[in-house]
Write a structure and sequence with these properties.
Six copies of one chain form a homohexamer. The first copy, chain A, is of the alpha/beta class. Helices cover 45% and strands 19% of the residues of chain A.
């Protein structure tokens, strides 16, 4: 078994739910590549560089993590880096069908297998979108994101308001 | 990474959908233990020995498979055999929540991680229950189960009818 | 196009939701066969003959309905009677996946097509099981079932209580 | 507003998830009636008296709780006791549709309103059924149920095994 | 029990489904605040003032209703006005998970409790979005919205077409 | 029974999943009108003319198909053409509720009935959106769309890249 897996996402920004999935995947593979999607389509809140920095600071307690960026198809990233396993967290039924659709497409396109892990129930009501919505209006998001992300969100929205 | 996983089930009887999940798990672990549950609660169609024989014949093309039986809690089986990963197939949304509930319970009870794989769409409408229902009334289940299972179902229901 | 369809069910007993589906199907086919399943597995509340009588009285305003009984596989009934279309009502998401599974199995086994119709929202919270539960304890089910069914439920449960 | 609500269930046995719902409802009503269903249909693990005792010990920190028993229809219980509000916890999508069906039926039958509360995510993977399954095989259920329930489950299953 | 609740929404425009939820909530609280969200994100069809006017005309038969506007986080609105209960309608499974996520976030952020009520089945297929889509192309929406909303939609889209 | 049905969609572009639904509907009606929506709202990848051409080439093996275009409400199209039946494919639970909502609205607005067919499991993970996403980054979509669509997607995205 080639013991490498990739954990892909936009991570705009990384939440405690993402960190939970990354920790659980890292415990079962020799190397875990966290692949941060550039996401040309929609305008992210944080630039790619900043998202990678925040990921790095949130996962520096894990020894077998590498943080990379990619654009385009995940299966191309997997092929180029000879990785056959994708790990994704599943929070809720509403995630389930689009994730299943993607997993089946990736398997069909390139034989890439997806392993889904059940997100801890503590984080099941977290999403980057909801966290940003709360932070935008000055709500306290410190229970939901790593400390550096909390600071960055505060700085980002303060900057927006002062404009 | 300890490269062993367990793929549990009642397998009453094994279907092509189960074989698909077992093949995909076997491709990514050094050893895959297929654990057949004795299932004291409800009356199975096939006795445990027969279910294991049918599993063995359906997976004898795979070199890294072991077929064991168990009763009681899956987490106890995992602890006794020092296995930290369970692999389960997910067919549909209706599977999803009870599977998530079990995975979270097993993680909480014993730190056992569950990796879910998306069953191939070809098998997404298969279940042991539906296959038995069709076979009971003489329907042709050969596209849905391995050949030995097809013969066993025919023999089983012919025996029932002759009684 | 062969303009015949079959609308199968256990109808134990027929509810206003069933009648709605039957009326809507009857409006679009030349002949609609309502096929009442004998259901050897679980013990029905009403015997097959009584279920057919109640169906007949609930649908006697429709000219192109025939009420038949069957046991075994629905696809065998379809083949024997040269019917290629099954009509089923869909009330809710929880119906959806098992219905889809059955429809795909029936298509695979015998090329039988299933047309699903969306039950009127007025009847979306009705099921034979819930109606029987309410009637068992003397609740008023007259808004949910045809008059003859209402009387039969009352008589049935009064008989049970006097035993 | 008549500030009384009823929180019904079988409570076989009460879990930390039930206690969470009861605490949250008790905070918003002057009186909260916890109504324990006799449940003539299926054989419960604990007799009604024992289920009530366990409920009492799990909620004795709450001043405005009353624990009653009932059988038959919940709407009859509501009418007899002049209660217009039912409170139910919602854990997951799979609960949702049958709960909605019951709520709409109860509103239609007797104008009784149901308020659903979202169970804390910590308890979202808990059910009495799963807890009993784990306890039956000697698993540790102390994180999931009140202490007295934990002891009762241990005693109950020890008794079963010694038979 | 502090008998005040808030029923929040964008109400762009208010439908008969919203009115049903407001009426049912108003029957169980001494005061019900209907809180109309300014919604800076997406462009509404009706300006905030107009949405409030339409809400007012649709609910003027209810004595214990107050209609307010807010922007930002609902929990901030609740804290400023010392309201601890939010009432929301649930129509369908697809509403359920995002609503649960919001309710759990609001409970975590500020101890605000959400009571969900099951929308009447008659209104279960209504949404402001679908109503606007139908009205945009001249369809008759009079069965789905209060009379004043019907007129406003007609005027709004006539104005658009004459431009 | 008037044996005409309409199969509506945006078809941007037509996939093998659409073709499967069209073929199955065509087998059961004398005439099947495939109605291609102009879709003024969002910017399609292919112009209406091109979408119709691709539909035509994908269905020219079927003798009883007509391909028309429409804008506005589907029920108006149905009324103008005296069609009382709409056929739609259902792939997954996430399709289900919005489809049900539309079907119930169309029935209420104009008595138009919707028959849903279960998409073949082979195509259950296909959507025009996912196919375009894969093609945009040069992935091979030939197993998922008719040959002419495959060529058109390649040409379209090559043109985009050379700009």
């Amino acid at each position: 078994m080639s013991s490498v897996a990739v954990c892909p996402g936009t991570f705009d920004p990384v939440t405690n739910g993402h960190v939970d999935v990354i920790e659980r995947a890292a415990a079962h593979f020799e190397r875990l590549i966290v692949a941060c999607l550039r996401n040309v389509g929609k305008q992210p809140l944080f630039q790619l560089d900043r998202r990678v920095e925040l990921l790095r600071s949130a996962t520096d307690h894990l020894g077998n993590i590498e943080i990379w960026t990619f654009e385009g198809l995940l299966v191309d990233f997997c092929r180029q880096n000879d990785v056959g396993i994708v790990v994704r967290g599943l929070r809720a039924v509403s995630d389930f069908e689009s994730e299943l659709e993607m997993a089946q497409m990736n398997h069909r396109l390139a034989g890439v297998e997806t392993f889904f892990v059940a997100t801890s129930p503590l984080h099941s009501f977290l999403s980057s979108t909801l966290v940003k919505e709360v932070a935008r209006f000055g709500g306290d998001v410190s229970p939901f994101v790593p400390p550096a992300v909390c600071d960055s969100l505060r700085a980002q929205f303060a900057a927006n308001r002062s404009v």
